[in-house]
């Protein structure tokens, strides 16, 4: 419940109201507790308080319960009982301006990103690639950047992988070795993601994170992501939220410490973000969390146990609300002890014991004071929401979607010229060039064959002429020889007859 001096009435303890100071709200926070202890209601109380102050919020709705933040709440026996305890006489029930989003475009405005926006590091996490395969993916992105090839959707990336693999020898010297085995593994991972519906997320128009930073009637807009279906793929869910957070860090300008944050980002089921995540990526997340504060963004992790959050990141979460934990195993008992040690002790009760004794709606609360120091932990009861607790109807959701200022902005996707189209065009051009070369080679061979045939024909006629000439010469010579012989014989006979005749005469 927001107050005029930039404070938020969050909970009530034996010592009175507990307030969150507005200028400390961007110092991040933690809402933890076992299932059923009241984390979702606490998130809703904080979110609607921020909305009332004009601070927009982003939150993922796992079961549809948070959609009720769009409608005014109503009096119940539980609330009526708590009003005197909290010092509230007439609760001002109201809903918050709300926009619904859905990666699959079914329960809200579609949310998309391009492959280039996602980047190789987050994409490698999404595809569950090993170090070698991640290196290949980095090379593919670098080659695409150097050649001006846009990677927008999954077909762009598949085509780019194929292109790099086919021209691996050309790229090895400049970019490093490209293994066809690793490329094949990445292609298989892409097919698996596509089979799970992941290809719907990649494309255009890409979401503009500035659309999260909106107000209506002076109230911050609640940006609610339908995550019930998205949660079936934990890697896609956590990577998508991490992408949104990194986009906020990248695009928002530096603003320093403001009286109130520009946006509060609730990261529900935060344990999914850090499960099976490389140390390099955890370090990157830690850097984003540390620096995004100066962009006016407060990040609140919501999870079942404080030890789900790595120490480097947990140390930055100044505002802490811890609901009850369970300790049935030695590991859980150790987690309870560690959680108790993160609070500034209150001499009036044992923190470790209190964690195990908290009922639904109760929590240990430690918020930052005006100087940024953590207050002594208090055992308190969280305020009730002024908006509706529980899901809204499908008709109510559809009506809110149609009346949203973003209606029609992201609903229709488009596919402009990118790596796929450019490489296909280049491939066709290369095929035409090769076909032309083949045709020219065919013509050259045909011409050579024709010339050889002409040469053979000329040679054959020459040989025939020579043969005919030789036969004529032989015939002439034979005739001449015969004639000569005849003449000679005639002359001889005459001589003989002459001689003999003269004798016999």
Task: Kindly summarize this structure in a few lines.
The protein has 505 residues and is α/β, with parallel strands linked by helices. The chain has 15 helices and 15 strands. Helix 4 packs across helix 7 and helix 5 runs parallel beside helix 15.
Structure description:
The chain folds into three domains: 2-112 and 204-403, P-loop containing nucleotide triphosphate hydrolases (Rossmann fold); 115-197; 431-505. Helices cover 49% and strands 13% of the residues. The protein has 15 helices and 15 strands. Helix 4 (131-146) packs across helix 7 (180-195) and helix 8 (234-251) packs across helix 10.
Which features would summarize this protein structure in a list?
3 domains, 13-stranded mixed beta sheet, single chain, 13% strand, Rossmann fold, alpha/beta
Low-confidence stretches: 495-505
CATH topology tier name of the largest domain: Rossmann fold
The CATH superfamily of the largest domain appears as P-loop containing nucleotide triphosphate hydrolases
Number of strands: 15
CATH architecture of the largest domain: 3-Layer(aba) Sandwich
Strand proportion, as a percent range, falls in 5-15%
Please summarize the sheet with the most strands: 13 strands, mixed
User: How many structural domains in the coordinates?
Assistant: 3
Give the CA-based shape: elongated
Q: What is the oligomer described by this structure? A: single chain
Radius of gyration: 44 Å
Distance separating the two termini:
176 Å
Q: What's the helical proportion of residues?
A: 40-55%
CATH class of the largest domain: Alpha Beta
- Derived from helix and strand composition plus strand pairing, the structural class reads alpha/beta
Q: How many distinct helices? A: 15
The H/E string reads: EEEEHEHEEHHHHHEEEHEHHEHEHHEEHH
Mean pLDDT: 89
């Amino acid at each position: 419940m927001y107050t005029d001096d930039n404070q938020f009435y969050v909970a009530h303890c034996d010592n009175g109201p507990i307030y969150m100071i507005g200028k400390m709200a961007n110092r991040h926070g933690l809402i933890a507790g076992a299932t059923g202890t009241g984390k979702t209601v606490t998130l809703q109380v904080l979110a609607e308080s921020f909305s009332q102050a004009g601070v927009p919020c982003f939150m993922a709705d796992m079961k549809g319960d948070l959609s009720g933040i769009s409608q005014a709440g109503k009096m119940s026996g539980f609330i009526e009982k708590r009003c005197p305890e909290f010092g509230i006489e007439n609760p001002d029930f109201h809903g918050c301006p709300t926009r619904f989003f859905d990666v699959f475009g079914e329960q809200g405005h579609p949310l998309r990103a391009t492959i280039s926006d996602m980047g190789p590091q987050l994409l490698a996490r999404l595809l569950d690639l090993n170090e070698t395969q991640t290196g290949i993916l980095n090379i593919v992105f670098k080659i695409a950047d150097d050649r001006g090839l846009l990677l927008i959707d999954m077909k762009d990336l598949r085509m780019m992988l194929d292109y790099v693999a086919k021209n691996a020898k050309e790229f090895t010297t400049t970019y490093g070795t490209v293994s066809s085995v690793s490329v094949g593994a990445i292609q298989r991972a892409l097919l698996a993601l596509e089979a799970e519906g992941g290809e719907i997320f990649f494309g255009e128009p890409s979401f503009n994170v500035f659309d999260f930073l909106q107000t209506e009637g002076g109230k911050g807009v609640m940006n609610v992501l339908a995550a019930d279906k998205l949660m079936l793929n934990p890697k896609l869910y956590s990577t998508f939220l991490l992408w949104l957070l990194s986009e906020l860090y990248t695009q928002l300008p530096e603003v320093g410490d403001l009286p109130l944050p520009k946006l509060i980002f609730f990261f529900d089921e935060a344990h999914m973000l850090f499960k099976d995540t490389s140390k390099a990526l955890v370090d990157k997340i830690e850097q984003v969390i540390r620096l995004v504060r100066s962009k006016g963004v407060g990040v609140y992790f919501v999870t079942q146990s404080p030890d789900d959050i790595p120490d480097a990141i947990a140390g930055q979460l100044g505002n802490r609300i811890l609901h009850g934990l369970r300790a049935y195993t030695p590991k859980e008992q150790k987690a309870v002890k560690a959680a108790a040690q993160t609070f500034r002790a209150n001499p009036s009760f044992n923190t470790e014991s209190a964690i195990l004794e908290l009922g639904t709606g109760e929590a240990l609360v430690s918020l930052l004071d005006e100087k940024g120091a953590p207050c002594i932990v208090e055992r308190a009861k969280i305020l009730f929401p002024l908006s509706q607790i529980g899901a809204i109807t499908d008709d109510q959701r559809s009506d809110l979607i149609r009346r949203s200022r973003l209606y029609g902005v992201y609903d229709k996707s488009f596919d402009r010229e990118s790596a796929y189209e450019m490489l296909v065009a280049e491939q066709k051009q290369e095929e035409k060039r090769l076909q032309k070369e083949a045709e020219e080679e065919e013509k050259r061979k045909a011409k050579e064959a024709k010339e050889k045939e002409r040469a053979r024909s000329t040679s054959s006629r020459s040989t025939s002429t020579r043969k005919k000439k030789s036969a004529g010469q032989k015939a002439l010579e034979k005739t001449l020889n015969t004639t000569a012989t005849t003449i000679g014989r005639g002359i001889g006979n005459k001589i003989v007859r002459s001689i003999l005749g003269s004798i016999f005469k």
